[in-house]
Q: What sequence folds into this?
C-alpha cells in the first residue's frame, strides 16, 4: 500500500512539473505575440491575411531579439530600439527607405558647379558647437522615406570631398546636404554612431550642426527623413573627425550646400 502511494505521489509530481513547464513555455511563446499585437496597435499596422501576419511576426520577433542582444551585450556608443520598421527585414527596409537617387531628390547632391576654390576655405574661428535648429533654420522632421533634404534652391556648390575640416566650415555657415551609408540605421535610437557603417552611400540627409558629448566624443548632428519616431526625434548623431576615409558612414564624401545665384 505504501509503495503504491509513493508511486502515485511521484507520478503526480512529475505530471505537475510537466504541466508547469508546458504553461511556462506557452507563456514564453505568448509574450512575443502579445508584444507584436501591441506594436501593431501602436503603429496602426494591419496585414492582408494570417499568412502575412505570421510572416511579419517572425520578422518582428527576430528584430526584437537582435535589438535586445545588441543593447545588452555589445559595448557601443549608441543604442537601438523597436520602432515602426520592426516588421521589415533589412533588405526590405533598405529598398523602401534608402536609395541615393539624384533624379528623385533635389537635395544638392548632384555635381555642383565647378569652383576654383572652396569659398569658406579661409574661414577661421569656427565654434565648437553649432545647431541650426536654434536659429529657426531647420524645418520640422517629416517622414519622406528616401528623400529628406529637399531644397527649393537648385543651385549649389560642393564641399571638398573627404574633408571634415571643410565640412565643418560649411556647416558653420549653413546646413549642408550629404550622402551617407545608412545600411545599419534601421533601429538607431540614441547616441553617437561610431562603427557599424561603411562608405556605400545609399541615403541623403542634412547636417544641421555639430558638437561634442560629455565624454568628449565629437559628432555631426544630422536630420533624417524617417519621422520623429525614429532616432533622436528624427535626428541621428554620427562620429565627427573619424579616422575612416571619407568620414564615418561616408559623411564627408559627397556634400553640398545651396546658394543664391
A:
Amino acid at each position: 500500500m505504501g509503495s503504491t502511494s509513493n508511486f502515485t505521489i511521484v507520478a503526480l509530481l512529475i505530471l505537475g512539473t510537466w504541466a508547469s513547464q508546458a504553461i511556462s513555455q506557452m507563456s514564453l511563446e505568448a509574450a512575443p505575440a502579445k508584444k507584436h499585437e501591441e506594436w501593431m496597435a501602436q503603429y496602426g499596422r494591419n496585414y492582408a491575411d494570417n499568412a502575412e501576419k505570421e510572416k511579419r511576426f517572425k520578422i518582428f520577433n527576430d528584430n526584437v531579439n537582435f535589438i535586445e542582444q545588441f543593447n545588452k551585450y555589445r559595448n557601443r556608443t549608441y543604442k537601438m530600439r523597436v520602432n515602426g520598421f520592426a516588421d521589415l527585414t533589412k533588405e526590405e527596409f533598405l529598398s523602401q527607405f534608402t536609395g541615393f537617387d539624384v533624379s528623385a531628390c533635389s537635395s544638392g547632391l548632384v555635381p555642383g558647379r565647378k569652383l576654383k576654390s572652396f569659398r569658406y576655405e579661409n574661414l577661421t574661428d569656427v565654434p565648437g558647437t553649432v545647431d541650426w535648429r536654434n536659429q529657426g533654420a531647420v524645418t520640422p522632421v517629416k517622414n519622406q522615406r528616401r528623400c529628406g533634404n529637399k531644397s527649393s534652391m537648385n543651385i549649389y556648390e560642393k564641399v571638398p570631398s573627404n574633408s571634415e575640416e571643410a565640412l565643418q566650415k560649411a556647416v558653420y555657415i549653413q546646413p549642408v546636404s550629404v550622402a551617407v551609408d545608412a545600411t545599419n540605421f534601421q533601429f538607431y535610437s540614441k547616441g553617437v554612431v561610431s562603427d557599424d557603417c561603411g562608405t556605400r552611400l545609399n541615403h541623403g540627409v542634412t547636417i544641421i550642426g555639430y558638437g561634442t558629448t560629455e565624454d568628449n566624443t565629437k559628432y555631426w548632428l544630422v536630420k533624417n527623413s524617417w519621422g520623429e519616431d525614429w532616432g533622436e526625434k528624427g535626428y541621428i548623431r554620427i562620429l565627427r573627425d573619424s579616422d575612416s576615409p571619407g568620414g564615418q558612414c561616408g559623411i564627408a564624401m559627397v556634400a553640398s550646400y545651396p546658394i543664391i545665384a
